[in-house]
Amino acid sequence: MGILSWIVMGLIVGLLAKLIMPGKDPGGFIITILIGIAGAFLGGFIGSFLGFGPVTGFNLGSLLLAIGGAVLLLILYRTIKRKTP
After folding, report:
1. For residue 24, with 0-12 CB atoms within 10 Å meaning exposed, 13-18 middle and 19 or more buried, which class applies?
2. What is the rounded distance in angstroms from the CA atom of residue 77 to the CA atom of residue 63?
3. How many domains is the chain partitioned into structurally?
4. N or C, where is the chain less crowded by C-beta within 10 Å?
């Protein structure tokens, strides 16, 4: 996937992850894209480790792995944010 594809997929995944887990999360447009891209990397890493395969492009399996990774990042962010005063 090219860089533009990663940005578009990051935006889609970030938006879907924020829709699945609504709440007070950081950011606007750029942060949403970064959450989506980081979620795709995390989801691809976990998917490869578990035998599901990596994030390879715009297909259903890759999209689900990326959304799962982004949701996991949002959960981690909220857990860390809650523990800090």
Report:
1. exposed
2. 21
3. 1
4. C
d(CA 15, CA 9): 10
- Residue showing tokens 């259903």: 60
CA gap 32, 49 in Å, rounded: 25
pLDDT tens for each residue of 25-49: 667 778 888 888 888 888 888 888 8
Q: Which two tokens stand for residue 66?
A: 């990326």
The total number of residues written for the chain in this structure:
85
Domain range enclosing 49? 3-83
Quick one: CA dihedral 37, 38, 42, 43, positive or negative? Answer: negative
Model-level pTM greater than 0.85?
Answer: no
